Amino acid sequence: MAAHLICLTSGGGVPIFTRNKGNLKPLPFPVIGSLNGVHMFANSHDVKLLSTTTEDAKVVWKVFHDSITLIIVTGDDSADDIHLNNLLSQVCDAMVLLYGLEDLANIKNIERFKREIKICSQLIDKILDQADLLTVGDLTNAVDIIAAPENSVLQNYLDAFTEAADSPYGCLMVHGKIAIATKRWWTLTSKEMVLLSLLMSSLSPCSSRDIPVFLPNLSPSVPHRLLTFQLIKDVDVCVLCGPSPTLAQLEEEVGRFWRSGYDLLRSLLQLHPRNYPLSITLDSNIMGFILVNRESHRCLCSTHPHPVASSKDTIDSKRRLEILRSFYKHVMGTFFPMSDDPDKGQEEICHQAQESYISTDSHKCYTILSEPHQIFVLYTANIPTFAMRSVTQKTLSLLVKDKHIQI
Fold it and tell me: Does pLDDT of 341 surpass 70?
């Protein structure tokens, strides 16, 4: 997604930072001033300016904590504004996560704030850089999971390790997706779990780290410590702690608790990027899917549903994910209500759509809303349109009922 992101003070319109993604030239300062000026002019006349579209672009404004205004300018994909509003909310939450709500809501020294808020740049770029994401949690407001038969055994390792760390909050991540987590970790809000997963994906590989984080809902003003340890490449265990133990103390415990589980970890890693058990066999026309549980705020996504490549695989994995994300944005907010939409009530959607599909020359997509689950499936163009409904229903049933997929 090519986009300009602009952050300004909501009172005086002083630019804080700009971020550009894609092959775009930075916006000139007069354009930034005009974008902010029209928003402030509307406010002064008791008009709430939310968004506007041009021939080839869309602009969305949003004010946070009466302190900062975020503006995003991007191509118009005809999707509901909720998706760009969701992105702006994630950017603000990313600033709270790494900087804290108190200092964000009460900017006293603008120049100092400009310098200090740069700590969030890497995470904000990750949120904007949707084309390079291997996950969909940023879009669905549900944290990505990886479902494996090994998870039930590895849960014992995690519980023992978090107990040694004197913390009820811990999880095991594989390529930014949660394999297992403690009961208290699952009580975090969806945006906190998604942000922490995005944070892990945005960081360079490291054997261990100790990062102060403010949880946007649970603790926006008092920081926790996020301790992470790389068990094997692309597999990290994460723990949220208070002042103790120290990173060095917990580093000494990693080998003692996890050494005997390394074979299980390697087996778990091999399931990526399929992300669900090999024991489940799906229709050969399926090229990928997104499965979301709106109650547990978990989602399972796969663009490699078959162990062996098929002659039907005419679309590569990256393009499959792009199509699934585009289909999700096309459907959600337009036909199906979004569960975390503060600006649009469900009553505004007057019809009760339960299913939708699209058909193109290169692929087909089908979605079913079956509370609390939503499933979005990408098919080859060869599948008969009339067959998609029954295949999608069967796929949903297979995934939801499997004992290894806790979604």
Answer: no
In the chain, which segments carry CATH 3.30.450.70?
Answer: 3-131
Backbone torsion region of residue 43, taken as left when φ is above 0, otherwise alpha when ψ lies between -120 and 50, otherwise beta: alpha
Tell me the mean pLDDT in the region 333-350: 61
C-alpha closest to that of 170 among 185, 155, 157, 160: 185
Least Cα distance to 200 among 137, 256, 139 occurs for 137
**CB 396 within 8 Å of CB 291:** yes
Round to whole Å and give the CA distance between 253 and 234: 20
Q: What is the pLDDT of residue 342?
A: 44
How confident is the model over 253-291, as pLDDT tens digits? 999 999 999 999 999 999 999 999 999 999 999 999 999
Q: What is the pLDDT of residues 99-117, one digit of tens each?
A: 999 999 999 999 999 999 9
Comparing C-alpha atoms, which of 141, 160, 172 is closest to residue 265? 172
Mapped onto helix, strand or coil, the DSSP state of residue 59 is strand
3-131 maps to CATH 3.30.450.70? yes
The answer to whether 241 and 165 are in contact (CB under 8 A) is yes
The edge-to-edge listing of strands for the beta sheet with 208-215 is 177-181, 169-174, 235-241, 219-232, 208-215
- Domain 143-269 annotated CATH 3.30.450.30: yes
312: confidence class by pLDDT, cuts 50, 70, 90: low
Write the CA distances from 93 to 70, 134, 190, 194, integer angstroms.
12, 21, 12, 11
pLDDT at 346: 45
Q: Where in the chain is the domain with CATH 3.30.450.30?
A: 143-269
Contact call for residues 36 and 71 (beta carbons, < 8 A):
yes
Using only C-alpha atoms, the chain has a radius of gyration, in whole angstroms, of: 22
Mean of pLDDT over the chain: 92
pLDDT category, 349, cuts 50, 70, 90?
A: low
In sign, the C-alpha dihedral spanning 401, 403, 404, 405 is positive
Round to whole Å and give the CA distance between 313 and 354: 29
Give the ranges where 3-55 is alpha helix by DSSP (H): 29-44
Which amino acid is present at 60?
Answer: V
Distances (CA, A) of 305 to 25, 42, 257, 289: 39, 49, 33, 8
Please give the Cα distance from 386 to 81 (Å, whole number).
Answer: 31
